[in-house]
Design goal:
The complex is a heterodimer of chains A (292) and B (153). Chain A is of the alpha+beta class and 292 residues long. Helix content of chain A is 36%, strand content 24%. Chain A has 12 helices and 14 strands. In chain A, strands 4-5-10-6-7 form a 5-stranded antiparallel sheet. A 4-stranded antiparallel sheet of chain A has the order 11-12-13-14. In chain A, strands 1-3-2 form a 3-stranded parallel sheet, covered by helices on one side. In chain A, helix 10 (225-234) packs antiparallel against helix 11 and helix 11 packs across helix 12 (262-285). Chain A is globular. Chain B contains 6 helices and 5 strands, in the order ββαβββααααα. Chain B has a 5-stranded mixed sheet with strand order 2-1-5-3-4. In chain B, helix 4 crosses helix 5. Chain B folds into 2 domains: 2-77, Ubiquitin-like (UB roll) (Roll), CATH 3.10.20.30; 85-151, Orthogonal Bundle (DNA polymerase, domain 1). The longest helix of chain B has 14 residues, at 102-115. In chain B, a hairpin with a 2-residue loop joins strand 3 and strand 4. The chains are: A alpha+beta (292), B alpha+beta (153). Chains A and B meet through helix 2 and helix 6 of A and strand 4, helix 4 and helix 5 of B. The structure holds FE2/S2 (inorganic) cluster (2 copies). One FE2/S2 (inorganic) cluster binds at residues 96-101, 133-136 of chain B.
Amino acid sequence: MAIPYEFAYEKPQNLEMAVKLLGKYGKKARLLAGGTDLANQMKQGFRVPGIIIDIKGIHEMEEIKMDGNELHIGSLATFNDLLSSRLIKENVNILHEAAGLVASNGVRNRATMVGNICSAVACMDSATPLMVHEAVIHTLSTRGGNSYRIQDWFVDNRKTAIQDDEIVTHVSIPLPAARYAGAYQKLMRYSGEDLSQANVSVLMLGEKQFSVAFGSVGPIPKRSLKIEHLLNEEGISEGSISRAKNMIDSVIAPITDVRATKEYRMHMSKVMFERALLAARERYNKPRVFFK
Amino acid sequence: MKKISFILNGEKRFIHVEPNEILLDVLRDRMGTKSPKCGCDSGDCGACTVMLNSKTARSCMIFAIETDGQEIVTLEGISKSGLTPLQKIFLEQNVFQCGYCAPGMILSATELLGKNPHPSRYEVQEALAGNLCRCTGYTPIIDAVLELTKKQV
Ligand code: FES
Ligand code: FES
């Protein structure tokens, strides 16, 4: 189905041109990378841009690379690029795991991770792995470069802190110096299409150092310092797990929709939290063993 | 209106498109390439699958104008010089019923076998996941892909 209204299209060949165009059109413009969200949103009338700026000509943004002790993921890196990247698999296994659960292969060939966090639909897969890793989002505009901590990025369902004239160039993930391991859990009906009904990321940075985030159970993903504090005090034990699970009631606020009820989301968030915690510990104790 | 060109099934083609035209519609209604089908029109079913620069993509979510200078291969393209071994085994084993999902299934399995000639059952399932089939229950399709990989040791 064609999109039932007219708009303009530009494909800048470098970042400078893209930034200029964005400076000129501001909120009338939408950036186009993989298009897997944008085309749908435009068909459904959620977004009605006057111009789309196709950024796929800016090849420098395709890169996934190390920069000192930070991992850089360019805005054009697709989920399948993440999946086939050794750097991602070995350094941010939790993101690797989440990328493999995004939609289907045909969608992962096009959909980008940065597009995922820019669309910021509540059920996105990449937010919680980035939250537990304290990723930073880097943008550029005619006013210069800017960066956002991931915890300040998400404002509401489909809304981020980005300004109308800014383009995300890349996301950086600081890699901890000492041993660490993470795990991702996603609740879905079947693989190949499904959006997450709830998801949990746990990162273990030491016997008593954890980072925990919940996704798809509120308008924006939620990191829980309260639960982290408990685990950082007590480490992993049957008692601490059950106390942490009870805390989840007051940490997340899932809703009921066509995909799941709020009670089911709440219950499963607890179950998945425990699974992710135990999986993270297992990997922490057996470094360099990667799971399917 | 912009004049774009792309390589479609090995031939250079030129066409004028508006930015709001979707690749699936342009292929089917304006270029006569009928193998990609419209199932869900929202990226979920895989019926509209084409290969864009050698990777499967869902043409219902691609603006035609984005494909300027790119290469597109559809089912018509991969079977230009006769059925491929994969298509032959699908035919022999009668794996499809209505066939609506077939173009997407064949392209997705072809992409997989190109990258990974001896996939596990899980890898086949994973590669075909998201190509929805309302008739077969998937098993015959997956079995046939695996059988082909055993033949081609
Ligand atoms: S029609 Fe494109 S994925 Fe269903
Ligand atoms: S054979 Fe009918 S949809 Fe697959």
